[in-house]
């Protein structure tokens, strides 16, 4: 199972993740900072989540595979 | 073969892009730089990085967050205008300023100006239908961009033209390769822009509105709020970066689509592709082909070697967008390309602040025109005009016939 984490101190609110995978990522409407809607997204979203994470300009997002920590 | 002299020659060729951007097409150099000199030293004293993976590595985090001072005398108008731009302040200040302004640039904020943009685009299309043609840049792009910037900053739509012209002169003078004549013009424009920013802030202190400037003023008394000089810097930065770039994006997008007819026809048949189409247009012909220079804050290893702390570097985004190491068939223009990890908004801490607005403006333009004019074509007999400087690459005029 995958776990999605956001480092809000690194986030600059670019919204790339929201654009690429709106099922999992959202932006705080006031600050623009990332919000994780699904911390454990289903397997069928893995590709979209992985791509969204890779496109974050400040590497504020990470994917952990449960058991890997 | 003498690799050293070949690379030195490449450096001289690449430098022409900065010395005469209006007349020098850098695109033939892209594959040569990527393959033979992925970290190229130019005779202008800075390096060029051209591979996609290297740009990602170089700009990631905040290791290259700062741009060097403008090519100008200390305390000149250019220096005073730009010294508090988000790209010139320290990484810590950058973070605080970015946090203060970015809330005005969320996707939701972009969509809030949507009805206004749509009305503006609809009016342009109606007028074009009557006349049988329009100018994509002066009739459509400038108006859409003017409405977006006007709504954001609380300024008259008509001011965009003045701001666009000032920004163009300022950006031309910003780069290391600029001639004295270009720099003199930039200084004049910077003085006018500074006055505009001062007047704008004074006006918003008296008559606040639902705009970013008023909100930043209101936030000054809170923790993390902007100082007066930072407020000037942020407003100057946004007016400078937001005026010409989106206009160039829309012009370049239509030019690319209309020179790839099958893709324009596809868009007309499927206007819902406007979202991915604008991404592909951004990849294919980006308004910013070479980022403002950055100062490297720590040694960074790239595929062409190590770049050292204190050295200056730029990224050729256009070259990275065509890197076959990252894109399948990069030469193919495909409005449904997925994934499309282009870096036309750059990457890292200086990722384009206005990307959500730009994307939205582009989508409205493409969708509205594609719905109305399936027979749209370039009207070359009425003459296209380019407007290129070392930072922004676009058209000043792009006439089309509506069919």
Summary, kept brief:
By secondary structure, chain A is an alpha+beta fold. Chain A has a single domain (2-65), classed as Alpha-Beta Plaits (2-Layer Sandwich). Chain A is built from 2 helices and 4 strands; from the N terminus they run βαββαβ.
Structural class determined from secondary elements of chain B: alpha+beta
What share of residues of chain A is helical?
10-25%
Spatial order of the strands forming the largest sheet of chain A:
1-4
Task: Give the uncertain stretches of chain B in residue-range form.
Answer: none
What is the succession of H and E elements of chain A? EHEEHE
Instruction: Work out the oligomeric state of the chains in this entry.
Output: heterodimer
CATH topology of chain B: Cytochrome p450
- SS-based class of chain A: alpha+beta
Distance between the termini of chain A: 12 Å
The largest pleated sheet of chain A is described as: 2 strands, antiparallel
- Show the largest interface: A-B, 18 and 24 residues
The tally of structural domains of chain B comes to 1
* Topology-level CATH name of chain A: Alpha-Beta Plaits
CATH architecture title of chain A: 2-Layer Sandwich
Overall mean pLDDT of chain B stands at 92
Number of strands of chain B: 11
State the CATH class of chain B. Answer: Mainly Alpha
Overview features:
heterodimer; A: 69 residues; alpha+beta; Alpha-Beta Plaits; two-stranded antiparallel ribbon; two-stranded antiparallel sheet; 2 helices; 4 strands; 20% helix; globular; B: 403 residues; Cytochrome p450; four-stranded mixed β-sheet; 17 helices; 11 strands
